Backbone:
């Protein structure tokens, strides 16, 4: 009989181990599915403005400071001339700058943080559609204040 008890105890230990393994596997599957579903929900929460901003490559059409073209050589917006691309991960390029960006204030503001300048550029979004992006901001350069208006068209 003592040998029988060992077999019974071994049987129960294996059964307990199998039961614990199944519970752990079930818990792992539930967590994995929850994470998968929550990541899918984040995709669905992207606003229409986010999609408009991140879909095309934007081409600068007009870069104005105090109503005058500021995109030429020596202009304060010279480095914004060219294309801009806002990636879905919050990175992008803006003319000759690279950096990060985010929408804020209920998608009415676009904040750009160039890698070369830690100060954010906070722009009011005047127009954002599938084909047009217009932003305005104020900037002070060498103690001179500027009203900046940048207009982009989808390529």
Residues:
């Amino acid at each position: 009989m003592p040998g029988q008890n060992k077999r019974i105890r071994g049987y129960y230990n294996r059964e307990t181990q199998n039961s614990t393994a199944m519970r752990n596997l079930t818990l792992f599957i539930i967590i994995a599915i929850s994470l998968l579903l929550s990541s899918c929900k984040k995709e669905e929460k992207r606003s229409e403005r986010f999609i408009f901003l991140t879909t095309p490559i934007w081409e600068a059409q007009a870069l104005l400071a105090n109503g005058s073209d500021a995109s030429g050589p020596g202009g304060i917006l010279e480095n914004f001339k060219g294309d801009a691309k806002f990636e879905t991960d919050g990175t992008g390029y803006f003319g000759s700058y690279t950096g990060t960006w985010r929408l804020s204030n209920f998608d009415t503001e676009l904040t750009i943080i160039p890698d070369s300048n830690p100060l954010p550029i906070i722009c009011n979004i005047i127009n954002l559609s599938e084909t047009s992006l217009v932003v305005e901001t104020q900037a002070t350069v060498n103690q001179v204040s500027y009203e900046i208006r940048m207009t982009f068209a989808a390529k």
Summary: The first strand starts at residue 58 and ends at 65.
